[in-house]
Design a protein that fits this description.
- This protein is mainly alpha-helical.
- The chain has a domain of about 70 residues: Arc Repressor Mutant, subunit A (Orthogonal Bundle).
- About 50% of the residues lie in helices and about 10% in strands.
- The protein has six helices and three strands, in the order H-H-H-E-H-H-E-E-H.
- A three-stranded antiparallel beta sheet has the order 1-3-2.
- Strand 2 and strand 3 form a beta hairpin.
- The protein starts with 12 loop residues before the first helix and ends in a 22-residue tail after the last helix.
- The N terminus is likely disordered.
Length: about 150
């Protein structure tokens, strides 16, 4: 079974499809009129959420996020602090930037990276919205409303 949104690239395999889908998901609208709001997010919204948590799933990227929480830093500073090659740090910063967790600011010959607070707050809001009983009573769908009891 083939899906219309899957890009078939011989020789590239699943990596190219995933990367293409994530790039396309950035351009899709957040919430369109007439569709249910959160906590029942659309599949398009889930692509953003999956990308955020994928970016935060690596220990090197988590340490980069921790050091960027103090102040903005360059790639060479992060390479010294994390004790990793500069190419590795650049790759992880690219993943963090594509997911929207990090911004880059060119300054002369160096590029400085800083955290994006709005994306981190969106991650926190999403995490709270999927907690046990987080949206009980506010959900219009039948999966969350309690069954009617007759007396």
């Amino acid at each position: 079974m083939t899906y219309p949104y899957v890009l078939i690239c011989p020789g590239y395999g699943g990596y190219m499809r995933r990367r293409w889908l994530l790039r396309m998901a950035k351009n899709w609208p957040r919430i369109r009129a007439g569709l249910p709001p959160l906590p029942h997010a659309l599949h398009l919204e889930m692509a953003h959420v999956a990308q955020w948590f994928h970016a935060a799933s690596d220990t090197t990227r988590l340490s980069i996020l921790e050091f960027l929480s103090q102040r903005e830093r360059s790639v060479s500073e992060l390479a010294q602090i994390v004790s990793a090659p500069q190419s590795t740090i650049s790759y992880h910063l690219k993943v963090l930037k594509e997911s929207g967790l990090v911004d880059e600011h060119p300054h002369g010959r160096h590029t400085y990276y800083s955290l994006r607070g709005d994306t981190l707050e969106n991650m926190i809001v999403f995490t709270r919205s999927v907690g046990p009983g987080a949206h009980k009573g506010t959900c219009p769908l039948t999966c969350c409303t309690p069954p009617l009891t007759y007396q």
